[in-house]
Design brief:
This protein is mostly helical and about 325 residues long. It has helices at about 5-20, 25-50, 60-75, 80-100, 105-110, 130-135, 145-160, 165, 200-210, 230-245, 260-270, 275-285, 290, 300-310, 320-325, 325-330, and strands at about 175, 180-185, 190-195. Helices cover about 55% and strands about 5% of the residues. A hairpin with a 5-residue loop joins β2 (about 180-185) and β3.
C-alpha cells in the first residue's frame, strides 16, 4: 500500500466496527457488501492498469462508481436490482467515511449523489393452490432427501418465509405444542412469529425423528450434515417444477423460485380475506406498501370484487358536460 493511503484502514473499520459491531448487520449483508467491494476494487484497478494494492481512496471516484455500475448491469448482465444493491453497499461505505474522515467529504458527497436506477415493477409471479400441490407432490418422501425437500417447501408455503430464514431454522425456534408457531429472524435480524399448521408440525417432527438435530442445529441439511445453501434449493426446486409441469401446464410458463412460495402465501392470504396489516406482520415487511403489492395480484379476488360492483346500467340522460354548453365554452377559454 502507498504511504498515507487511508483506504485499507477505512474499509477494515467499515466492516469490523461499523457494520458488524455498531449496525449488527447480518452475515449475509456483510458478505454481500464484501462481494461488492471485491468487484469494485478489481474493476478500478484493471481500468487504471495497476493492482488493487496500489489503489488510493481518491481512485474510488463518482465517475469510477458510475462506470462500475454500468459494467455490472451490461457487461456482467446483472439486473437493475443487483446494480442498486451494489450501489447501496458503496453508498454505505462513503456515508461512513464522511463521518469518519471529513477530509474526503467532497468526494463522499459526489459518490452519494449517484442515483439508484428505477426499474419496472412487475406483478409478482405467484402460484395457484393447485400448482403448489403439484410441486409438493414431486419429492420422493420415502427417501431422506425427498422428505427433507417436501418439508422445506411445505414450510415455505405455510410461513411465507424467505429462503434463508427457512434454511436458518433450528428446532428450538419451533413450538411443537399447541398453539404451534415458529420464530423467524428476517432482514435486520427482526424477529417475528408465524403460526404453523398441525400438518406442517407433523412433517417437521417426522423429519427430526428420521434425522435428529440438536436444538441449536439447523434442520435442513445435506447428506453430509452440512446446512443447505439457497442455490442448491433453487436447483432442486427447478427439477420438481419441471416434472410438475407435465401434469400442470401453467407451471411451464412460470419462473418458480423459493421466493414464489412467499408470493403464493401472500396472495392466498389476500384471497382468503385476511387483513393486509396481518399479512404485513406475517411476512415481516417493514412497509405496508410492500404488502399492498400483493393485493392486486390475484385475478380471482378481482373477479369477485367486480361481481359485487355489477355492470353499469344504460341511461338515456345526456352527461352534464354535454348538456351544459356554457361549461364547454368556458373550458375552451382556458
Amino acid at each position: 500500500m502507498k504511504k498515507g493511503n487511508p483506504l485499507p484502514a477505512l474499509l477494515r473499520a467499515f466492516f469490523q466496527e461499523w457494520l458488524a459491531e455498531q449496525r449488527s448487520a447480518s452475515i449475509h449483508t456483510i458478505r454481500s457488501y464484501r462481494d461488492t467491494w471485491r468487484l469494485l476494487l478489481r474493476f478500478i484497478a484493471e481500468r487504471k492498469g495497476g493492482g488493487v494494492a496500489r489503489l488510493m481512496l481518491t481512485d474510488v471516484s463518482a465517475g469510477e462508481v458510475r462506470a462500475f455500475l454500468h459494467h455490472t448491469e451490461h457487461a456482467r448482465k446483472g439486473t437493475i436490482g443487483t446494480r442498486n444493491c451494489r450501489l447501496a453497499a458503496i453508498r454505505s461505505f462513503f456515508s461512513f467515511v464522511a463521518d469518519k474522515d471529513p477530509e474526503y467529504i467532497a468526494q463522499c458527497a459526489e459518490v452519494l449523489t449517484v442515483p439508484l436506477k428505477r426499474e419496472p415493477t412487475p406483478a409478482p409471479c405467484y402460484l395457484e393452490p393447485g400448482e403448489v400441490e403439484a410441486i409438493l407432490a414431486q419429492p420422493e418422501r420415502s427417501t431422506l432427501e425427498g422428505m427433507r425437500d417436501h418439508v422445506l417447501l411445505s414450510f415455505l408455503y405455510n410461513t411465507g418465509a424467505r429462503i434463508q430464514e427457512a434454511l436458518d431454522l433450528c428446532p428450538d425456534a419451533i413450538r411443537f405444542a399447541a398453539p404451534n408457531f415458529v420464530r423467524l429472524y428476517g432482514k435486520g435480524r427482526k424477529e417475528r412469529i408465524c403460526p404453523l399448521w398441525p400438518e406442517t408440525v407433523a412433517l417437521l417432527e417426522r423429519l427430526l425423528e428420521r434425522q435428529p438435530r440438536a436444538p441449536d442445529e439447523r434442520i435442513f441439511v445435506n447428506r453430509y450434515g452440512e446446512p443447505l445453501g439457497a442455490s442448491g434449493v433453487r436447483f432442486k426446486l427447478g427439477a420438481y417444477v419441471e416434472e410438475a409441469g407435465k401434469a400442470v401446464p401453467t407451471l411451464r410458463s412460470k419462473h418458480v423460485t423459493p421466493h414464489s412460495f412467499r408470493h403464493a402465501t401472500a396472495v392466498h392470504l389476500v384471497a382468503a380475506g385476511v387483513d393486509i396489516t396481518v399479512i404485513r406482520s406475517w411476512l415481516g415487511h417493514v412497509s405496508l406498501d410492500t404488502t399492498n403489492h400483493y393485493a392486486q395480484a390475484n385475478l380471482e379476488t378481482k373477479r369477485k370484487a367486480l361481481e359485487q360492483v355489477g355492470a353499469p346500467t344504460a341511461s338515456n340522460v345526456r352527461p352534464s358536460w354535454k348538456r351544459d354548453a356554457s361549461l364547454m365554452e368556458w373550458l375552451d377559454t382556458l
